Amino acid sequence: MKHLVILGAGTAGTMMANHLSHHLKRPEWRISIVDEKTEHHYQPGYLFLPFDIYEPEDIVKSIDEFIPKTVDLVQGAIDKVVPSENKVLMHDGSVLVYDVLIVATGAKTAPEEIEGMKGNEWYKSVFDFYTFEGSLSLRNKLRDWKGGKLVVHITEMPIKCPVAPLEFAFLADSYFKHKHIRDKVEITYVTPLSGAFTKPKATEALEHLLQEKNINIESDFAIEHVDNEKKEIVDYGGRAIPFDILVTVPTNKGDEVIARSGMGDDLNYVPTHKATLQSKEYANVFVLGDASNIPASKAGSVAHFEAEILTDNILHFVKGEPLKEEFDGHANCFIETGNGKALLIDFNYTHEPVEGTFPFPGVGPLRLLKESRMNHMGKLAFRWIYWNVLLKGTHIPFVSASMSEAGKKYN
Q: Vertex 7, ends 274 and 269: CA angle to 5°?
């Protein structure tokens, strides 16, 4: 019996387990998925928790609810992978020998990378919202906060869901308006980029929204340290930005198991062929989701599109057939803009976000790069789609893994 092992039971790993369970069956194949956690978190929900839009029970469920019965769930900590021997070594001393390995170990925040970030003010006046604990602590802080300087900050790229910090700033504007204290809150958006986003067309639209909502932007800010006494963030040029509450997105890194295994780059991301999702170093190792170093957005939609294409390539690989170079970096992201509205962007490796309609050309009903209530409803509906469709490996009708140019307005 051949053995396929999936490392990580988050979004990407769970989708792959569900996809492959329909194709690789006993007695020829055994599929195992490994994770030390017992809870599955809907990570996009972390954005809504601080503003009391979602409750904790909306975004946390048991991992085993979503793993197919035909897949072995191994709940334990991984020590390291020995790819030269096709082995996964567990902390408890057990060994998983594999024929094919899928790495879906994700990315995590590393606030310790910046001096002072995880200092005395951590979870007092300095918060992240990329973890459940940080998001919940921030919710409790904002409930009683009377106003002051709110700084929303990105340490460095790449990060999971690159639009989330902007969404946080927009939702904060809406939240304080509804609490009738917006005039008492100064919101500043601080980014290491030269503009609001990584893509020029989207940057133009998003910076217009920042101005419209009276949100300051500080660009090209490369943070050097957090001064907990003065409550300032300071960049390498000495520029200091004061805060009463700092909502920061720390450095994002791949899992430490990748470093221990000697499989990653400086940020513990696995070098991956961007079109096939095969490891650049090991033919029987495949990587998807936030664990890879491909130049695509680290977002759930990307993992969803990758999973559909990777499933086909895994089947080609086990049959000894050439892999298809089909993944185009497709990302599809709703951007909450506050006040019950949202934008939608659709892009890939070669095409930046533009205006148009989605998913049906000329019809929509969703509008690209335009604020609408329909887009906001789409964002909220995505949580149900995530739990009931996406994780189970079900294809979303009318949404292709590769980006369609139909219905988009290119100059």
A: 40
Residue 411 — very low, low, confident or very high, per pLDDT cuts 50/70/90?
low
Task: Please state the pTM of the whole predicted model.
Answer: 0.95
Instruction: Give me the domains of the chain, ranges plus CATH numbers.
Output: 2-50+60-108+253-318 (3.50.50.60), 110-252 (3.50.50.60), 331-390 (no CATH)
Block residue for tokens 């195992």: 32
Spatial contact of 109 and 250, defined as CB atoms under 8 Å apart: yes
Banded pLDDT at 407 (limits 50, 70, 90): confident
Print the SS3 string covering the chain. CEEEEEECCCHHHHHHHHHHHCCCCCCCEEEEEEECCCEEECHHHHHCHHHCCCCHHHHEEEHHHCCCCCCEEEECCEEEEEHHHCEEEECCCCEEECCEEEECCCEEECHHHCECCCCCCECCCEECCCCHHHHHHHHHHHHHCCCEEEEEEECCCCCECCCHHHHHHHHHHHHHHHCCCHHHEEEEEECCCCCCCCCHHHHHHHHHHHHHCCCEEECCCCEEEEECCCCEEEECCCCEEECCEEEEECCEEECHHHHHCCCCCCCCCECECCCCCEECCCCCEEECHHHECCCCCECHHHHHHHHHHHHHHHHHHHCCCCCCCCCCCCEEEEEEEECCEEEEEEECCCCCCCCEEEEECCCEEEEECCCEHHHHHHHHHHHHHHHHHHCCCCCCCCCCCCCCCCCECCC
- Note the pLDDT tens digit of each residue in 235-287: 999 999 999 999 999 999 999 999 999 999 999 999 999 999 999 999 999 99
Task: State pLDDT tens for residues 283-302.
Answer: 999 999 999 999 999 999 99
Contacts of 61 (CB under 8 A, 6+ apart): 39, 40, 42, 387
Rounded alpha-carbon distances, angstroms, from residue 342 to 41, 170, 258, 336, 379: 23, 10, 36, 4, 8
- For residues 334 and 344, give the distance between their C-alpha atoms in angstroms, rounded to a whole number: 4
